[in-house]
Known about the structure:
The chain is of the alpha+beta class. It has two domains: 2-77 and 162-351, T-fold; 94-150, no CATH class. It contains six helices and 16 strands. The strands form three sheets. It has a nine-stranded antiparallel beta sheet, covered by helices on one side. It has a four-stranded antiparallel beta sheet with strand order 1-9-10-15, with no helix packed on it. Helix 5 (267-280) crosses helix 6 (282-288). It is globular and about 55 Å long. The model is unreliable at 5-39, 323-348 and 353-360 (pLDDT under 50).
Amino acid sequence: MHAPTASGSAPRRALSAAARGWRGWTAALALAAGGCRQGPSLPTVARAGEALGATFSVAAWGRDSALLERAVRQALDSVRLVDSLLSTDDDSSEISRLATAHGRARAVSPTFATVLRKALAVSRASQGAFDPTGRDYRRVVFDSARGTVALPGRLVLDFRGLAEGYALDRALLPLAALADSAILGLGGQYLIRTAPRRPGAGSGAGRQVGMSDPDNSLRAVALIELPSGTWAVSTTSQLDRPGEMLDPRSGKPATRARAVTTVARDGATAGAWSSAFFVLGCDSALALAGAGGGQLDGVGVLCVDDRVRWSADLDGRVVLATDSGESAGSGPAPGPGRAPAGARAPSGSTPRPANPDSSR
């Protein structure tokens, strides 16, 4: 995935801040040129830190730099709190301690319960394509009334994707009331907030996020235009995790898609469904996603296999890009398909050019 940019500028040879792997995320994404700035005079505060095995970065624009600085520090604290609960790399984290309970029920924090509830809901909706156990989510014993969790056998939990998105959601809370705009990034995900254009301020600049070509992370295969508001964008790609992304239902490598970018209103949803869509493949992802046709209202998807396709709610907001930096144009979304995973490719999709420099 590429850093957000201001609409109207051509996507050049390589947009800055390309992903360097699933957990490797450069701090430059939060420092992306004033793509979220609402005016040249607004102060900017930017910080970065480590969390969940990746680099968390935040850049915010607002009118009061002192209050903005405090809010950015609170955002970092929020991400570190989520890290202390959900990091699988820290033996003292809540998720690691649960793995050593040997099947006994243990009380979990409200935050942990919230994330687990979301994970199990997406697991059910995706028919196991997203699975926080990597094996069989149905064996997790979760007593929501008592706030306890038991993992029978050798089950362990890993909220990868969803955890990063949830951390971004929490980090945005202290910024929401103070920042005109903000870009937050963690582990291959963005959470982008832009204020509506003020009356009399002109047409204003839109926001764009680039999807990396799965053959070359330094080249954008497409750009997604985001309107004002809060949007989460999460990408899962073969380039970032070659052979590592497994289908939890079979234990074999997921090969139906080459890259998936999911757009949603919150980070937890975008992160979890990005993983699920990658496993399901483009046909089923397009059948499930998108308002006015899919089952997941408010969740859009841009998917690459042998073609570049997107859900109906992204129609008119996707710009295919060439290496030369010229717009390759946008076109109609494919017609809605049918779930589940065996669905045929919907019509109206765009073949992926064999030559990356060719236009649509």
